[in-house]
Specification:
Helix content: 40-55%
CATH architecture of the domain at 196-350: 3-Layer(aba) Sandwich
Strand content: 15-25%
Strand order of the largest sheet: 9-8-7-6-10-11-12
Number of strands: 12
Structural class: alpha/beta
Largest sheet: 7 strands, mixed
Order of helices and strands: HHEEEHEHEHHEHEEHEEEHEHHHH
Number of helices: 13
Oligomer: single chain
CATH superfamily of the domain at 196-350: NAD(P)-binding Rossmann-like Domain
Shape: globular
CATH class of the domain at 196-350: Alpha Beta
Radius of gyration: 21 Å
Length: 425
């Protein structure tokens, strides 16, 4: 097995960071060389070219990707993102992270991820629908409830999932709701799905606070990102008694030691659609990244990857880092977090509430019986609390930080099933 290495030039490459962490965990597990090589590489990578006639009559070709990382523990599971900066390396990394995320919370999925290089903000609804349907048609043989179950991600939503479900169903000649998750409730979506990732973040933060004997009311929280994940996490934590002192979105950030009135912030940003930095309810304006470096007890980056790096990790002033986004911390920054004694709840555990409730949605679709939201939330709480405890125990037993412990736990679970199944040849 190779020695884990990460070139300084690769620090911002999310795939390089994911590989470096995988190698460290695999080495500490003493993973056999053949098993290591099997698990390191994805099952398949698919590139599709999507010709679309735009509203102005011009023909444009968009590039799309879908990566299946692992099918060892079950069907592939992972979101589809629409963004102008999508790369195959990014999709590879996120697919592998989904494998480990599903294994950490012990749900029977492997990892996948997809993306289309486009700017959804510059496309009409009709253009987005045509892109989505053609992308789905190109991948129709790989999608399916027992093969690959997509979900929303950056730049996509429940409407996009509805188009995927309909396109797949038209080709299958039957309505197949379990082919995607994150759908509208009226089409087989699950209660509690919209706030699931944010609720999961609240649950693991509660567990971390209890571990250190702290109370919610004494904790100052900073949330970077005010999309679906960040806004839900901030709102739920505020309602639970935490003091949210810092918030940020794509327009900028605000910091106020007295805390924010989150319902008023939500009304300003999500209902009135006004820029967060212009919020009239107080706070010192600053950049969206600068808000990460303000004093707090819990720092919750829920925006995009590579926000905490080797160049700025020394500026973090939090006791607990709870990663709401995928890959908000580079592998090079991990050592700095350890040196500062920051308790890290890594992304593959912290934000797994979304995929957990996606699993619940898949189960409900397949059995044709749907749960009340209270049942969804109760079962989510049980999964997240149990998973948090398992990662912390693994960390203590193997004398590693929580991130490497989470990877070790996940890799161990996948490797165990792989050995039971064997290699078909």
């Amino acid at each position: 097995m190779p020695t884990p290495t990460l070139s300084p030039h690769d620090e911002m490459n999310v795939y390089a960071s994911a590989e470096a962490r995988f190698e460290i965990a695999a080495r500490k597990l003493g993973l056999e060389d053949g098993v290591y090589r099997f698990m390191r590489y994805p099952n398949k990578e698919i590139t599709v070219y999507i010709p679309i006639t735009l509203d102005n009559g011009r023909l444009e070709v968009f590039i799309g990707y879908r990566v299946h990382h692992s099918l060892v523990r079950g069907p592939c599971k992972g979101g589809i993102r629409f963004a102008p900066n999508v790369t195959l390396d990014e999709i590879r990394a996120l697919a592998s992270e989904m494998t480990w995320k599903c294994a950490v919370v012990n749900i029977p999925f492997g990892g996948a991820k997809g993306g289309i290089i486009c700017d959804p903000g510059k496309l009409s609804r009709g253009e987005l629908e045509r892109i989505t349907r053609r992308y789905t048609a190109e991948l129709i043989e790989w999608f399916g409830p027992e093969r690959d179950v997509p979900a929303p991600d950056l730049g996509t939503n429940e409407q996009v999932m509805a188009w995927i479900m309909d396109t797949y169903s038209m080709h299958a000649r039957r309505t197949t709701t379990a082919v995607v998750t994150g759908k509208p409730i009226e089409m087989g979506g699950s209660q509690g799905r919209h706030s699931a990732t944010g609720r999961g973040l609240l649950i693991v933060c509660d567990k971390a606070m209890a571990k250190f004997g702290k109370r919610r009311g004494d904790a100052r929280v900073i949330v970077q990102g005010f999309g679906n994940v960040g806004s839900a996490a901030a709102s739920l934590m505020h309602a639970a008694g935490y003091k949210v002192v810092g918030i940020a979105d794509i327009h900028g950030g605000l910091y106020d030691e007295k805390g924010f009135d989150l319902p008023a912030v939500e009304n300003w940003v999500l209902r009135q659609h006004k820029p967060l930095p212009d919020f009239p309810g107080g706070g010192t304006p600053m950049s969206a990244q600068e808000v990460l470096f303000q004093p707090c007890d819990i720092l919750l980056p829920a925006a995009i990857e590579n926000q905490i790096t080797s160049e700025n990790v020394h500026r973090i002033q939090a006791s607990i880092l709870c990663e709401g986004a995928n890959g908000p911390t580079t592998a090079y920054a991990d050592e700095g977090l350890d040196a500062k004694g920051i308790f890290v709840i890594p992304d593959i555990l912290a934000n797994a509430g979304g995929v957990t409730v996606s699993y619940f949605e898949w189960v409900q679709d397949r059995e044709g019986f749907f749960w009340r939201e209270s049942m969804v939330n109760e079962r989510l709480k049980d999964v997240m609390e149990h998973s948090f405890d398992e990662v912390v125990r693994y960390s203590e037993a193997h004398a590693v930080n929580n991130r490497i412990a989470a990877y070790m736990l996940a890799i161990d679970r996948v490797a165990f099933v792989l050995k039971l199944r064997g290699i078909y040849a």
